[in-house]
Each structure stands twice: as structure tokens, then as C-alpha cells.
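HUMAN: Please help interpret these C-alpha cells:
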Amino acid sequence: MGARGEGKTVDADPRSLADVEDPVQRVRQANALIDQHQVAISELSRLRREALDELLSRGMTQTQIAELAGMTRSRVGQLLSSGPRPERGFLGSGPLIMALGGKHEAGKDKPGPVVSAESLAAYERLAGLARTMGLQATYEVVPPPGFVTLNRTNLIVLCGPRLSPLVAQVLESDISLGFDHDADGWYLANHETGALHRSPLDSGDNGDIAYLGRLPRPDGRGTFLYMAGIHAVGTAGAAHYVENNLPELFRETRTRRFSTLIACRFDPDSHQIISSERIAPIYRHEGVS
């Protein structure tokens, strides 16, 4: 297993650094290795706590767990009350990258990509949640026509299919839920029930509907977390739901593929999310090719 340092592969064995003559390169490669191992240790700690929680949920006592795991009873108690919370795995295992869909800035001769205030609010909400889990987060703007690099770990995409044809193609892998549009505008369709969910905002009401799910990467080597509203405020509503229901979402889905629909209400003046709720089952995509 290697680490990346300044474009070069660094051997995971720290002893290999002794052969690096340039002290600057030695510092950089050491930093890369330290970062790599810190992420791995944090994720292993989270997985350990998740396993301990699962054993407790099966009715085992901490004393029984300690005997089976070769630990003391006090050590088990300590691990259950410290370290990364298991539900952190819903967001990612290391520094998060959030991709926000951008539009061309209006009224400019050479317009650059800009994102909506609601999309930034969704990012800030998720980034704040990530910080409470010991994860750092940054964002990038996906400029038109929406070519976003999806084959990355710890990626969260906040970009509707209208802004990214690539995302629209990946969404087609979901046989249960999806975006569509007709003469009356965009909507979210439940293919399992035949229900069509149109945004209350299109009728002048202060609400929206959003898609929330975990989708497959095009390279087939993982997934990315995805949320997008029919309108931008719905994306903030989905982030609100994740923030307030993270333990339940993790218990239901872990890090597996799924999709569901979220309805939200917002303040008409500030556009701040007031409430959010799930309005569709959590559809699991195990076995979907």
C-alpha cells in the first residue's frame, strides 16, 4: 500500500524514507505517510466501535464482549464512549470533497460558474456535521456543462441532473426513483409505486422535494453520496434531513447503495430549512448491476 507525495508513490514502510537523500522530499513523503496512516487508524477505530455497538445490540454484555475480544471490561466501555461514531461512515472515511453544481453567471461578458446560496447552505450544513464526526470537508464548483469527476473516494455530489448530464446518466442506474420532466416541469418519479412528486415551489408553496441516495461510480470501484432537489432549496432540505437523521440512515443503509425521497419546508424570506421528512421508503440497490 502506498501514499502519494508530490506526484510520487511513497512506500508505506517508514524505513524506506531513510534512503531519501533530499531532506525536503523526506519531509514531504513523511507527511504523506502520516496523513495516510492517520486516516486508516481513524477508520479502523470507527469500524471497531461499530462492531462493538452491533454486539451490544445483539444482547451481549460488555463483560461478554471483553472476554471474546481479549480486552478488559473497562477497555470495552472506553472504546464505546470514545473514538469516531459509527455513523460517520455514512459520510466517508477521510477528508470529504463536495461537488456543487454551477451555472454561468448572468450579465457578464465572460461569465464564470456560480453556485446558488441554497447549495452553499447545503454544503455548510454537511461540512458542519462532518466536523462533529472528525472529518474535514472542502467543496468544488462543477462548471457547465457539468463534467464532474465521480471516480473518487469520500465524494458527495450536490448537483441536479439539469446541471450535469453525467450525473443524469448515473441516476439511470436507479430502477426505483429518478428525475424526469414534462411540459409542466421537472419532478421526481417513484417507479415502484407510479407516484410523481412535483415541487410545491412550482405551485407557489414554500417546499421542495429532493433525491437522496448512494450511487455507483462509473469505474465500478465504489460509490458516492448524492443529494439534489428539484430546486436548489431541496438540496439544502436533503442535507437538513441527513444532519438530523444520520444514525438512522447509517443503521438502514451502512455504506451500501440506496435511494429515497425527502420533502422539506423553508422560510419564504430567508430560505432557511424549517423541516424535512422522508416521503418514500429506503430502496436498497444490492444486486443491481
